[in-house]
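Standup notes
- HV: blocked on the assembly model, inputs below
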Amino acid sequence: DIVMTQSPDSLAVSLGERATLNCKSSQSVLYNSNNKNYVAWYQQKPGQPPKLLIYWASTRESGVPDRFSGSGSGTDFTLTISSLQAEDVALYYCLQYYSTLPSFGQGTEVGIK
Amino acid sequence: EVQLVESGGDLVQPGRSLKLSCIASGFTFGDYGVTWVRQAPGKGLEWIAFIRRKAYGGATEYAASVRGRFTISRDDSKNIAHLQMDSLKTEDTAVYYCARVQGPPNTGSLYYFDYWGLGTLVTVSS
């Protein structure tokens, strides 16, 4: 099974500053035949279901603000919030769908400093 | 508008069974895979089950934590997916979400989950 490990578990960032969230997979999730990384990022606010932000590691879902960006390849991935807004306070999860048994990271909680 | 609505959550005793439903609307249900993800109170997301489109035999996958106890199924004529949960344990207590699964047009592979329901709460306790 592929294990996804997120870091840090939580971080506090000043409004308008950059937030950097990391996700590491226990094996490569890059599919060589199509050169795609099988990673997605989700945002979850209290009492709400997860919301898809990023898929294929770097493709922004329609309607997601462009301050959210994804990067990385192979086993190391990053979600960046370029200028943190109050409404970005949430839990963020990475997901690998390379395997037929997908798995989530444990989550990173983002708050305001 | 794409919508998924879960139902069937309840308080149930350990060892008993429960069946959850996920009713979809706003898209051609049969063209997509469906998955269930759960979230225990105060915990993270755990993927538990996936069912492919009928074009790929409706084949299923399960997480080790539920394999042999839970069964995912679908009825494309009613735009509904089910999760039959047997031999429930206290550690199965969670909010259960269904989600639509994106996938390639020519295989039964599983991609990312794009639309989610609001979830239904299952509490397993004596």
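- HV (later): unblocked. Chain A has no helices and 13 strands. Chain A touches chain B through 24 residues (CB under 8 Å).
- Next: hand off to the docking folks.
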